Amino acid sequence: MAPGGEAQALHLDQHDHVPGLVININALHTLDDFTKANGCTRVVPGSHNRAPGTKIDREIDERDAIYLQAPAGSLIAFNGGLIHAGSANKTDRMRRCVHAYFTRPWCRPQWDFPRSLSPDVIATLSEDQKKLFGFGGGTQWYDYQTDEGRHD
């Protein structure tokens, strides 16, 4: 979050609420202290368990949001189905973190690297690096009985 950066709107990192099932996890590795003043992430506790189709109520959810303050070097991890947002940075310094996004193998990632990287960049990647970026994953599907994703 840049100095003077405005607050994000509360949102989900998935299409809808899915109570009882973690589809993805956000992991924020804090490089700077996370404080209310510099725009730390805020979350609405318990919102990941709402019924599918439940809309975000900006007024009520903002009132119920809590701020995840943490010292530099911390890891903040939460269910991507939790309503959350970055807050306004009211300081004159950056608030930095490294975002890692973990998702079930049968879900689309937040970023489609195979479609986003140029052929020149792809040509420089090893096979292991290509796997990390999601190349060659094959068709994926979900088995509700085992709660596992599978490849064809």
How would you sum up this structure, described in words?
17% of the residues are buried. This protein is 14% helix and 23% strand. With 152 residues, it is α+β, with helices and mostly antiparallel strands. The radius of gyration is 18 Å and the shape is globular. It has helices at residues 58-64, 113-116, 119-123, 127-132; strands at residues 24-30, 41-43, 66-67, 75-79, 84-86, 97-103, 140-143, 148-151. It has two domains: 1-105, q2cbj1_9rhob like domain (Jelly Rolls, Sandwich); 111-145, no CATH class. The termini are far apart. The longest helix has 7 residues, at 58-64. The strands form three sheets. Strands 4-1-6 form a three-stranded antiparallel beta sheet, with no helix packed on it.
- Cα end-to-end separation: 41 Å
| Helix proportion range | 10-25%
Number of E-state strands: 8
N-to-C series of helices and strands? EEHEEEEHHHEE
* Coarse shape: globular
Q: Which regions are unreliable across 5 or more consecutive residues at pLDDT < 50? A: none
Specify the biggest β-sheet: 3 strands, antiparallel
CATH C-level class of the largest domain is Mainly Beta
